[in-house]
Automatic annotation (TrEMBL):
Name of protein: Transposase Tc1-like domain-containing protein
Residue ranges of domain Transposase Tc1-like in the record: 71-140
InterPro entries given in the database record: Homeodomain-like_sf, HTH_SB, RNaseH_sf, Tc1-like_DDE_dom, Transpos_IS630-like, Transposase_5, Transposase_Tc1-like, WH-like_DNA-bd_sf
Domain Sleeping Beauty transposase HTH: start-end pairs: 1-52
Entry's transmembrane regions: none
Pfam families, A to Z: DDE_3, HTH_SB, HTH_Tnp_Tc3_2
Amino acid sequence: MAKTKELSKDTRNKIVDLHQVRKTESAIGKQLGLKKSTVGAIIRKWKTYKTTDNLPRSGAPRKISPRGVKMITRTVSKNPRTTRGDLVNDLQRAGTKVTKPTISNTLRRQGLKSCSARRVPLLKPVHVQARLKFAREHLDDPDEDWENVIWSDETKIELFGKNSTRRVWRTKNAELHPKNTIPTVKHGGGNIMLWGCFSAKGPGRLIRVKERMNGAMYREILSENLLPSARALKMKRGWVFQHDNDPKHTARATKEWLRKKHFKVLEWPSQSPDLNPIENLWRELKVRVAQRQPQNITALEEICMEEWAKIP
């Protein structure tokens, strides 16, 4: 027999209101399009409990004892990468046989949900201090200052597939706790490498880096693309250039080249891609490219350029 749809709270309250103005169960059912038996059940419930809310139901007893719940909660709190299979085995050794869905449901009631571990830069204490110093120094900068920055970076875009993920048990808003993240290092293979820039006014140039980039190549990229981007974006006088602390960017020859060109460079803390808003633009580009499903490297490059040009 099919399960009937539960009445909304408003409908239940309306039944009680009509009953209180002395309408019969038949008349109420006819007016609201309900069976007389349904109306009668709601009225009897209201007379008995003085409420139309759903009452607590007993249900089946919990398979995991309170002690077992504490044990698995403590386990995943200490090590969020513990799998459901590990927890099933732990409980089985303690004399309780359960399934993986039971583990999920139990931990969910404790406010813990299985989520993909966030990938974040691997930070040493010196990086943490540098990031904090940067944040404090720029805390009160007006919006106009940030609007006059050209942000730049390199990124890789893969032809197929997704980066591997790991799942962790965590509470809401705890996705960036160190225990719930996967430290990453930069760059890899099986992809195309891109250099791009943008400002608050829109995207600048995007180019493919076809060879392994060195300092000379990086300076050539800036020479051919940075100033044209600034002109196209109509940057104000005194605009600021941002790039990270990659060795190619901080090489003495690169610093000297930037100085001779009179480019003002934003001081940048190491291991801080999450501070660079271009990461959001890379994300937008990668989503757009993935939706078009390029089948080869040539198509991947063409689609990247097309989708970049469409970003407003």
